[in-house]
Amino acid sequence: MTRLDAMRAVYDRLEDCAVVTIMGAVAAELQSIGHRQNFFYLQHAMGLASSVGLGIALSRPAVPVVVFDGDGSVLMNLGGLTTLARYRPPNLLHVVFDNESLLSVGGFPTATSTGTSLAAIAAAAGVPRTADVNTIEAFVTEFEAAQRAHVLTTIVAKVDAIGPAAFVTDLGLLENRFQFQRYLQSR
Ligand SMILES: Cc1ncc(C[n+]2csc(CCOP(=O)(O)OP(=O)(O)O)c2C)c(N)n1
Predict the structure, then answer these.
(1) How far is the CA of 104 from the centre of ligand 1 (A)?
(2) Which CATH class is domain 3-186?
(3) Would you say the CB of residue 28 lies under 6 angstroms from ligand 1?
(4) Is the pTM of this model over 0.90?
């Protein structure tokens, strides 16, 4: 499964959600499907997308929050999983696209390429719902089930180590930040 196909498959289900992504390939691919005012691409702060999502989910409990994370990013902030589990906001859906590499900076392998299971780490940290998926069908099924369940969930989706054709955006960092802030204020 490619990450692009996975995000395309759930794109319509993001309409009413505040969406936070990591930087690089994930951000570029989601933008290539179509930017929306409710999408925030967290640039530079590697590992902290789930922490930003946690803050939004806790402060805006009526807003469903989706985080699109990466394996390298999660590994850089493993303590983030324990904090998610401690506060366990039911409105937070944490998706980790696991391509077993730091794709955006050249594709160096991460520990998931030698067997580390991020879903198992999330479960051991106390995240109440976790899932491992490696097909589009399973991803969509788990994504929809998590949205229905309304329980903090981490879905780890194994994806091919393929990035976007180009990292092109005409959306400035500050513009994205203020758009997203206005979106949250409107909810
Ligand atoms: C603190 C910090 N260290 C390093 C980087 C450089 N960097 C940007 S993206 C990236 C890789 C992210 O890997 P992953 O989360 O697996 O996502 P992928 O690129 O594979 O989609 C790195 C190392 C950064 N932005 N911040």
Answers:
(1) 6
(2) alpha beta
(3) no
(4) yes
